[in-house]
Amino acid sequence: MSVSKNKKLNVAVAISSFFPSIGGAQVTAHNLASYLVDQNHNVIMIISWKNWKKIRNKKISYTIIPMLPGHQSLIGKRFIGRIYTFVMEKYLYFLQKKYKFDVWQSFGTYPMGISLSKFLHKKNITHIMRTVGYDIQKNADVDYGYRFDNKKEKLITEWSSKCTKAIALSESVIKDLLDIGVKKNQIEIIPCGVDLDRFNSLQPDVNIVREKYNLPKNKFLFICVGRNHPKKGFSYLIDAFNELRINNKLEGKHLVIIGDRVKKLQKKVINLKLSKDITLIEELGMEKNDDYNVPSKSLIELYKSSNACVFPSLIETFAMINIEAMASSIPVISTDAPGCKESIIDNFDGILSKPADIKDLSKKLHEVSSSSKLREKLIKNGMNTVINKYDWKVIGQQFENLYHKEISKKEFIY
């Protein structure tokens, strides 16, 4: 069956954790749904019951409906799990019959991806599964990954390969997908993207923004964004700043770390006597008048009021922060770690440091802050990288093309 690329598609976008929680997966799901609506496709966003109750009355460009309650906690249970799976499949059948979805786009192998695979595989309906990070990657050093749980690992391995296509955000994720049984010809690489028009539309007054957050106006400001988890490397970033102080290179520099639970780093900052040099700001969240545009206006303004971005993560599926920094016209320092290195060509559109290497990161921080010529090169090339590879006009088209290609291979059974 041939499907015209001009055909109006009915698309289900399914994600367990959604707004008001904010992370890379939530941002991508929202941007994807918004892009598809702009292209005149019909989009239904299916989210957890808990998240749906919180945002069901919010104005969003696409329709939001809930998944059955207990989705995360009951799936995989020995007895009640079987009953829940039976009821779930009846619910999914009802949704498919009502909305006649051409394609289901799930986020996360567990629990959403495997739940849908059990139903959609039998019905021969196109199912595109996008990984999110903790659902697929494993790192014992920082206790990261669902797959250390044997029950979840079994479910993920059994059902993930039943999807039509699995999206890897970067080359680094391909080996993880192969490890859970997904075949190489099932894998497509589609990275994260940014809404460049939104970034370009915001031109904040730097002094006003810095004053608002009590940040020094006359210092070189590094910004770091993300939830406080050992894999993000925030602890050794603070050590790298302390290394600058030890080597008498800290003068004129300041660091702001923004994200969920970053205040837990306060004790370390105090112990190293860096309170005047490092500011910790808890997650900004979305603003009431932001209409669920993400990142928030406040975060973009903080990016643009900074001189450089540093993202010292030890493992990612894709380092969203790197391309947000590029879109904000500031240079970015990241790491030569899985999911981070793929978005940067070292010393061209960004700088790569050795993961968890305090001295190397400290050296890179000083190099970027000391050379305006280097910064100008990174900013110019970084913006070109975003325009050509990571703008949502580019990323959205990749999703859309994939849908049309895979739908054309399927015969629908309702």
Description:
With 414 residues, the protein is of the alpha/beta class. Helices cover 43% and strands 15% of the residues. It has helices spanning 24-38, 49-55, 71-74, 80-99, 109-123, 150-159, 171-179, 196-201, 206-212, 234-246, 266-271, 297-304, 320-327, 358-370, 372-390, 392-407, and strands spanning 10-15, 42-47, 63-66, 103-107, 126-130, 165-168, 187-189, 220-225, 253-259, 278-282, 308-310, 332-335, 351-353. The strands form two sheets. Strands 3-2-1-4-5-6-7 form a seven-stranded parallel β-sheet, sandwiched between helices. It has a six-stranded parallel β-sheet with strand order 10-9-8-11-12-13, with helices on both faces. Strand 6 (165-168), helix 7 and strand 7 (187-189) form a beta-alpha-beta unit. The longest helix is centred in the N-terminal third of the chain and has 20 residues, at 80-99. The radius of gyration is 22 Å and the shape is globular. The two termini are 16 Å apart.
**Approximately how much helix is present in the residues?**
40-55%
What is the string of helix and strand elements? EHEHEHHEHEHEHEHHEHEHEHEHEEHHH
Briefly note the structural class of the backbone. Answer: alpha/beta
The main β sheet shows up as:
7 strands, parallel
Widest beta sheet: strand line-up = 3-2-1-4-5-6-7
End-to-end separation: 16 Å
Query: Based on CA inertia axes, which overall geometry fits?
Result: globular
The mean pLDDT is 93
| Strand segment tally | 13
Multimerization state? single chain
The percentage of residues in β strands lies in: 5-15%
Radius of gyration: 22 Å
How many helical elements? Answer: 16
Uncertain stretches of 5 or more adjacent residues: none
